[in-house]
Amino acid sequence: MVATVADLSLIEQARVIAGRDLVRERRRGEVAWVIVPFGAIAMMLIPLGIGIDTPTLRRIGPGLFWVVVLLFGVLVTVRRTAADGPAERALLLRFGVDPVAELWGRTAAHVVLLLVFQVVVGLVTVVLYDVDVSRWPVVAILLPLIALGLALLGTITGGVAAATGGSNLVPFLVAPLAIPLLLAATESIDGSTTTRGILGWLLLIVLVDTILAVAGVLTARPLQEIT
Amino acid sequence: MTITPPVVELAGVTVRRGVSIVLRNVDLSIQPGEIVGLFGGNGAGKTTLLEVLATSLRPTSGNAAVLGTDLRGERRLEVRRRIGLIGHSPALYPELSLRENLVVACRLTGAPDDRIDDVLAIVGLGGVAGRRGRECSYGMQRRTEFARELLLAPELLLMDEPHSALDVAASGLVEHLAADVTARSGAAVLVSHDRERVEKISDRSVELVGGTIGGGGDGG
User: Fold this and answer.
1) Quick check: A11 contacting B, CB < 8 Å?
2) Which residues does chain B have with pLDDT short of 50?
3) pLDDT at B218 (0 to 100)
4) Which chain B residues are within 8 Å of A90, Cβ to Cβ?
């Protein structure tokens, strides 16, 4: 027998999958031309819809930003994961890709997409809601942590939906774990201007991210078997 | 004297889907260098048998080994890279070009990618390598899959209806690919309803009837 393949590290496989997903997404344009504009429009429509004054907008702006990030962010990741058909999923089986590498590769691509989404919607929030930008160091820490949590959440639930054919289950799977992220993100922003501090909330986000990472690693192989 | 193990060794393999028994006590042995034609009517269990051989479906009972690896064990992931599969529907990333599809295949498997242009020329796609998967006809996508398997050099090649969508000029690719595998002491299994064409290139025929091996072959 001729052995023509070399052993690839999990990191190398994950890197190739992340690159593949980003190229595919760039060419589809779904995130850039549909989801990001809709997220920005949602942030624009809310003040028009409820007609509130500038001080109130300034107060509720950060909270609305995180709600939009959470809802649209999960949508991005779930759709990207569940969008692959049986033939595309079979390809990764054919290539002998480690399911854990697939999890991290997809998650890495989702983190990049979510960061783009967060930055665009964040700029809209700053401009329209007159949000205090002095708290940017806190936001700079929060954005990647929340992006990682939502990326893992969407990748796992998208994988469950693809494996079980039960995409209608996704909201029920997403909600319980997304709520702590939303709560912690909002409270971190509030806490950064008070004496309460933000450390506890940041630790909660790190804890949720860690739980999701462990859950993702533990479920990756069984989900691939079901698929 | 070195004894070469069989590429495929199935003994009493049974597969249930719900309450239905799709494969029943299938015994099949395929030796290195063999090309096997697998035939049978609709619902005979051909595709299910391919799924078992491709390690994407675990048998409900029985012993199954491919390339010396027990398919019930955890080493199935490792053997998958050594099994080529051309399924019923072309499996390509539609947003990527034909060439990029092959690059991804090589990078994910660790196969060398310096022959991509050569194999694209062999399958007649040298001039359209930059075209995206979604812009290509079914036949062109099929040819790209052939190119992929030439690059990945599997030791067991499984093909489901390999001649479908191929024009006359391209139909020789099936034989080329099967010969490429057997020249490396691998084996090929060709599932088809086109018995005449497949029997011309296969060493042996196996007939599946109602989930069991019968008809023209003894299965091993």
Assistant:
1) no
2) 215-220
3) 41
4) 56, 85, 87, 91
